[in-house]
Amino acid sequence: MSSDPIDLDRIVIVGASLAGLTAAATFRAQGWDGDLVVVEASATMPSDRPPLSKQVLAGTLEPAAAISALTDRIDGLDVDIRLDHRVAGAGFAADDLRLKFFNDHEITADGVVIATGSAARWPAGFLVETEDSTANEPKYRPRLAGVHVIRTLDDSLALKADLDSGPNRLVVIGAGFIGAEVAATARAAGVDVTMVEYAPLPLARVLGGMVGEFVADLHRDNGVDLRLGVGLDEIVEGAPGRVGAVTLTDGSRIDADVVVLGLGAAPELDWLGGSGLVVDNGVVCDETLWAGPGVVAAGDVASWVNTLFGERMRVEHWENAIEQGEAAAKRLLAAGEGSDGEPFASVPWFWSDQYDCKIQMAGRPAADDEIVLIDGDPADRRFAVAFRRGDRCTGVFAANRPRIAVVARMRMAESLDWSHVVP
Amino acid sequence: MKVVVDYDVCESNAICMGIAPEVFEVRDDDFLYLLDENPGEELRSKVEEAVRRCPKQAISIEED
Questions:
Q1: Which structural domain range is residue A137 located in?
Q2: Both A368 and A275 in a single domain?
Q3: CATH number at residue A163
């Protein structure tokens, strides 16, 4: 099937983070020489994200290097980057794509790449409006100082300043990967850490009990006070305007002068209301990342049908932002040729470094999949497990076994048949 | 082209091997080995892909 070619004179990429800049580099690498504009809500260039909970926080990577790790991807390319351009509203009708910004600027485009990423979640009611907030453009800040999320370079540096000041105790709420990496970095710096997780085990909702037990032991053995099966009740003020403690759902109270919230992230979608696109836990795309006439999406915001798994998914991993940035750019250029492009099929993959342990996972397992040990022994902190659902391998989790993880991923890309992935 | 790996930076994430197994191999000792330091031009796009997707940006290409 093919369509009428779209005449692509100007392409606008919304979001200058990993997916957006990768898309920009891909347009140029593919030889497209039209007017390429990247609009970005923040007033400064975003940084690469993986170091924010690790090397930047530990002080072993300069902030400028975290930014250049991202911006090097478009170094020397003809890309018009417009910072401080937060989209207020968009209209995406066929042959009429337009964006309006809070700074009153507007732009029209022949093609749009949506790569707005996601924002950290905060507990209900904890954010209050800032003094420069307006009805037109509301702005928020946390109610108490000393309470952090990790999403931007500024977030990471603010937490670093608090950790460097010699706190008595850091409390991490949520034992997901960001929270766990922050806990590990803080322990390495000699900070006392309590990590609170609502589920009975870390990662239990996604990866099941065996992996959760391993991660729990890893943190306990490194001196983390791990509280499982309890949630955050309230963040309590200590000194005026500053956190002093948290209370938990079991009635306990932990004195804390620094708190990190690892409550996950939500895709940045509010600006798409009334745009004409379908939004449902992400920008709803087909299997080629196509969201609507002339519009593609990439990275955290893209909900698409992964044909390899036969299911709709939205993936917040670093590498997915690169893969989808490339694929979305190519999809838009295909539309310029009147083609419907290729499905974007992938095996999601991520890594997490905690203490001396490199964790890697390929695939998309569910917590009720059968877990099979395929290499090593968790007690040695060097092992791999595979997840099985019927005749399928849905994922592989590896600790300090990168070769096992990558080989499994290569096989999964060919076929998810259990006997193929785990011969 | 010559492929250069900065082994001080490399963390053996093994992404490169998934993209260009003709050039990169992470062995059972979990260290990265270069199978071909001077791969042919037919492998250029794969090696460039590996450069882009290395989480540590530990791989670079030097032109001959």
A1: 127-263
A2: no
A3: 3.50.50.60
In this structure, are A109 and A132 located in the same domain? no
Same domain, A142 and A222: yes
For A65, how many CA atoms within 13 A lie in the half-sphere containing its CB?
A: 11
A407 and A314 share one domain: no
Residues of A in contact with B13 (CB under 8 A): 351, 358, 360, 402
B37 touches A at CB < 8 Å: no
> A405, B14: Cβ pair inside 8 Å?
yes
> Which domain covers residue B8, as residue numbers?
2-62
Question: Distance between CA B44 and CA A175 in Å, rounded?
Answer: 41
Of A303, A336, A369, the residue that ends a domain is A336
The CA radius of gyration of chain B, in Å to the nearest whole number, is 10
Helix (H, G, I), strand (E, B) or coil at B27: coil
Question: Per-residue pLDDT for A1 more than 60?
Answer: no
Identify whether A5 is part of a domain: no
Lowest mean pLDDT among A44-53, A128-137, A346-355, B48-57: A128-137
- Does the predicted interface ipTM exceed a cut of 0.95? no
Last residue of a domain, one of A336, A367, A395: A336
- Chain B: give the shortest CA distance to residue A103, in Å: 34
Phi-psi label, residue A310: left if phi above 0, alpha if psi -120 to 50, beta otherwise: left
A49-89 pLDDT tens trace: 999 999 999 999 999 999 999 999 999 999 999 999 999 99
pTM of the model: 0.95
Residue A84 per-residue DSSP state = S
Residue A2, classed as helix, strand or coil, is strand
CB contacts, 8 Å: B56 with chain A:
none
**Where does A256-310 show beta strands of DSSP type E?**
258-261, 265-267, 283-284, 290-292, 295-297, 302-306
Q: Which residues pair with A109 in a beta bridge?
A: A97
The two three-digit tokens of residue A252, written as one number: 């306990």
Tokens of A21: 């800049």
Residue A154 lies in a domain: yes
